[in-house]
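Customer escalation, tier 2.

The customer says the design service returned an amino acid string that "doesn't look like it belongs to this structure." They asked us to rerun it and document both sides in this ticket. The original structure tokens are below, unchanged.
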């Protein structure tokens, strides 16, 4: 499984690194598509600029950075979540097939939308991959189970000691 992770992470990250660098270098075309989404996004997240071109560049830098971290296996779960978060506005702004005017562009946009949906699924899998180590929920559950067992043993021991103490008194 280690080999699969080492191969799959850079493969998944490559699109984001390439796309992120392209967004930084050539934000023009993408900022036109981001124009309808940018004000809504900026209103919901404090501190984000309203200028679509600046948002596209920020998104590109985020994608390139998180993609590089994922490819290198550094903070893979966090970087996968960050990439998944960047994918949502990118997909909604760039591949809104439901708004396409002609059949050809609708088919192409739907294809890209579904591709991004698949990548989103891969990122979610990468985000929950604990690399074979138990996750926090498993650790907490087993710690609680161990604590319950220790409490039962302690209670049994206390009853035994109390019974011995009563027997000595009589």
């Amino acid at each position: 499984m280690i080999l699969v992770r080492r191969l799959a992470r850079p493969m998944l990250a490559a699109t984001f690194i390439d796309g992120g660098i392209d967004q930084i270098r050539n934000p023009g075309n993408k900022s036109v598509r981001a124009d309808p989404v940018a004000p809504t996004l900026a209103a919901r997240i404090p501190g984000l600029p309203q200028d679509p071109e600046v948002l596209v560049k920020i998104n590109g830098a985020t994608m390139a950075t998180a993609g590089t971290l994922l490819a290198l296996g550094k903070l893979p779960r966090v970087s996968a979540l960050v990439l998944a978060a960047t994918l949502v506005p990118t997909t909604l702004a760039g591949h809104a097939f439901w708004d396409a005017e002609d059949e050809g562009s609708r088919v192409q946009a739907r294809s890209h939308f579904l591709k991004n949906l698949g990548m989103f699924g891969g990122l979610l899998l990468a985000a929950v991959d604990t690399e074979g180590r138990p996750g926090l929920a498993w650790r907490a559950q087993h710690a609680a189970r161990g604590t319950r067992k220790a409490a039962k043993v302690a209670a049994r021991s206390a009853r035994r000691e109390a019974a011995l103490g009563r027997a000595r008194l009589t």
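Tier 2 assessment: The sequence is consistent with the input. DSSP finds seven helices and no strands in the chain. The mean pLDDT is 87. Sent an explanation to the customer and offered a walkthrough call.
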